Amino acid sequence: MKNQVVQPEGNYYDKYHSGNPIVRWMMKGFFKSIEELLGKIGAVPEKILEAGCGEGEVTGHLRNLYPQTEIDAFDISEKVIIEAIEKYPNINFYVGNIYSMEVRKPKEEKMSSLSEGYSLVVCSEVLEHLEEPAAALAEIKRLGTGYVLLSVPNEPIWRILNMLRGKYWKDMGNTPGHIQHWSKKGFCKLVKESGMEIVETKSPFPWTMVLARKR
Asked: How far is the C-alpha of 200 from the C-alpha of 212, rounded, in Å?
């Protein structure tokens, strides 16, 4: 099926609140890389969008970094958006589709299209779930006026780590819902082919993270 989002309702493994010291070290590196890449932007973003925000953990971090900036965020799952609203009431959360950028408030039916003009668009750990990641990147680029921050699992490292911890052996370590698999080089190629210029990359273990901007 085209334009399908193979996205679970929330994370299969809650890495953001894990008590495991290795996972906590990994997440510390993840958020440190976000901060370092956003430091390359210079000016404070006037308006931020997070596409595919899940329970809002990255969105909440963005709020801490930019307390005065208007932040919109959406996810395909109404369940996790309701959870995100409870945790971060000062962020504009919506239920929406990354392919059309149409959103709605939870428990409402009326859809509306997001307007262009976001100086920063963030899409973290979403593209690996999509049948057509290039189509999603085209929409992200269309809405943005400046910078885009993207992150995906770094393969095959991600699957190897899953197998080392005894998970998903029947699927060779593949996390359920992951249908795209990129090395750092492969993901950078996809971003460039989308018409964006790569500003800088980071490799917080075990992710690939890219800061790009519209050409």
From this structure: 7
